[in-house]
Amino acid sequence: LPVNRSVETAAMDMDSAGRLWIAYEEDQIIKVLHSQPPFDLWEGPVALNRGEVSSDDICDITAFGGDRIGVMWSDQHSGAFYFRYHDDGTDPKHWSEQEIAWKASGWSNADDHISLAAASDGTIYAAVKTGGTDQLGLLVRDCRQGWDQVFHLIDIGGTRPIVVLNEIKEQIYVFYNLENGFNDVVCRQSAFKPIAFGPELPVTSGEAVKNVSSVRNRFDQQVIIVAGSKPDEQHRAYLLSRLILSGQVLPAELNGLWSWREGDAVVLYWRVSNEVLSDGFVVLRGVSAEGPFKPVASFQTNGLLVARGGQDQSVDYQFVDENPPLDVPVYYRLYTQNFARYNLLLGITHVNALQP
User: For the chain, first and last CA: distance in Å?
Assistant: First the structure.
């Protein structure tokens, strides 16, 4: 590729016309190259940013909407994440106007951690890391209304996140390292709507890996996650750790989740089937859809919510929250869990404030 040795990372995707695109930062400029089959000749580059970004900034690229290719990049000078797109089949030099995907007021939030994934309806999900506060968040771009300008919190720590989508289950998965350097990888997941990420799920335990990556296409049954490990004593190339997340066998399947107030209490009622890997349930409570959420019931602490179903069975469960807030709406998140720490968000429900 016609790039210099200072390029730290490059991202690649193919548009609907079969044109391959590569995006990267070089000499403080966000650039894209393109190539036609058999991909032995590269044209460009085309510069996308206005002004200079930091030499530590980064970008990612994704095909979306059926006929577009888009690039997001960080700008640590302005503190913002930016985005531009190109219509497939048109002049490679023609790109949309620059969009601000996210910029917080009063502090610089852009950092060199970006991962893009696109749903079949053209919605773009961007997992990013902020500067200074070191938070991981999700940014969302609707194909009709643009960026929602909401920082959907994933974790208050962590680094180098990637996002993958399961449209069959309508779930967003974000994988990342717990901290800088070589260490364990974890995952958090959320429904498409509303976006609210669940507890940390361990993916590796005691393994020294970093730079998690995966395929760009959406998955339904399985997705393979790879990560680089430390060079061995013979200084060979980085090894790949293959991590598999399966959407095929779930601890339990939710058939319905309901909630209502009874006096000063709130009743939660749910029905699940095929509890093949579930040991029980955990209920978390918050006063907004975005959280924070805190546990109010767990089968591991009080024995109330122990799973009692099995394969090809449907079982009803009920939990009564005796001391919920009365003057504000109350939101609940229901998880199934087992002793191996596998957590799966089953559903979200809420009740309105108690009327005087």
Answer: 69
Contacts of 270 (CB under 8 A, 6+ apart): 254, 256, 257, 258, 281, 316, 317, 318, 334, 346, 347
> Does pLDDT of 302 surpass 60?
no
10 Å Cβ neighbour count for 308? 11
| Alpha-carbon Rg for the chain in angstroms | 22
Question: What's 207's DSSP letter?
Answer: -
Q: What average pLDDT does the segment 57-80 reach?
A: 93
Q: Show the DSSP H helices in the chain as ranges.
A: 299-302
Strand 159-166 and strand 185-191: pairing?
unpaired
Token pair, residue 168, equals 């069959």
pTM of the model: 0.69
Distance CA 47, CA 92 (A): 11
pLDDT confidence tier of residue 232, bands split at 50, 70 and 90: low
pLDDT digits (tens, 9 = 90+) for 103-120: 876 555 767 789 999 999
User: Cα(201)–Cα(176) distance, rounded to whole angstroms?
Assistant: 11
Interatomic CA distance for residues 59 and 76, integer angstroms: 12
How crowded is residue 37: how many other Cβ atoms within 10 Å of its Cβ?
9
Which helix (H) or strand (E) segment is 109 a member of?
A: none
Instruction: Measure the CA angle with vertex 166, ends 162 and 171; round to 5°.
Output: 80
Neighbours of 162 (CB within 10 A): 23
* Token pair listed for 172: 């967003």
**Which tokens go with 3?**
């790039």
pLDDT band at 298 (very low <50, low <70, confident <90, very high): confident
Please tell me what DSSP assigns to residue 183: B
pLDDT value at 3 more than 90:
no
Domains of the chain: 10-246 (2.115.10.20), 253-351 (2.60.40.10)
